[in-house]
Fold this sequence. Notes:
Layout: H1 2-30, E1 39-44, E2 47-49, E3 52-56, E4 59-65, E5 76-79, E6 101-106, E7 110-115, E8 124-130
Parallel strand pairs: 1-4, 3-8
Antiparallel strand pairs: 1-2, 4-6, 5-7, 7-8
Copper (II) ion binds at residues 46, 73, 116, 118-119, 123.
Amino acid sequence: MSALTKPRLAGVGLLAACMTALALFGASAVAKPAPPKPKEVTVNDFYFGPSAVTIKVEGSVKWVWSSFNAYPHDVHLKSGPKGLKKKGTYSTKTTAVTNARFQKKFPTPGTYKYICTIHPTEMKLTVTVKK
Ligand SMILES: [Cu+2]
């Protein structure tokens, strides 16, 4: 009798393990990953904080002007990957002192060098977009 029940019990155990594995796999396959949050860069008198950020392709950078600023700043793309499309959309159109935001999505991998055109030697930022 024990010779008959033992393999059966082992079979049930194996089945349970398989179903657990399926349930776990199914859950992870169905759950959508949350869209990546934009990396935030503050625009200050007279620096970008931080001065370098790394994001994944399709990720975004959000620039936030500090409320303590007394001087105007902009966000200007000095150089980006070769053949970058819609290059104009990577820079702000105007300057701002405070209470400004600028968000940009990066669908093209590469290195993006940013400056503030009013303080080009002090304010520099590198955005690295990984594949
Ligand atoms: Cu500036």
